[in-house]
Amino acid sequence: MISYRAETTMASLIYEKCKSFEQARALLREVFVTEANLIPNKEKKILLVRIHNLPTKAMDKRISDITNSLKSRYLKLLNCLSPQ
């Protein structure tokens, strides 16, 4: 039940980039079973996640658009939280 809620919450974040909510959830499920490289950077306290190619180029493009969108949201959040 917890994983379903997490998947649903994540799908709501990427829904605008997909044609439907179900497509957003299907894309996430595909990402979850796709192999990835995890590259930690201890100095910068960053974990780089490189997702291997998805089954179709359209999925690769969509997930690329989504990750770029999420990165920009994250950077905006960091700018708001950082002390002036």
Extended strand count: 2
Number of domains: 1
How much helical structure, as a percent, in the residues? Answer: 55-70%
Categorize the overall geometry: globular
- What structural class results from the helix and strand content? alpha+beta
Largest sheet, spatial ordering of strands: 1-2
What is the helix/strand order?
A: HHEEH
Write down the Rg. Answer: 14 Å
Overall mean pLDDT stands at: 82
Main sheet properties: 2 strands, antiparallel
**Unreliable runs, pLDDT <50, ≥5 residues?**
none
Note the main attributes of this structure:
single chain, 84 residues, alpha+beta, two-stranded antiparallel ribbon, 2 strands, globular
Please characterize this protein's 3D structure:
It is built from three helices and two strands. With 84 residues, it is an alpha+beta fold. Helix 1 (2-14) crosses helix 2. The protein starts with a helix and ends with a helix. The mean pLDDT is 82.
Give a brief description.
This protein has 84 residues and is α+β, with helices and mostly antiparallel strands.
How are the secondary structure elements laid out?
Layout: H1 2-14, H2 21-33, E1 36-41, E2 46-51, H3 57-81
Antiparallel strand pairs: 1-2
Helix pairs in contact: 1-2
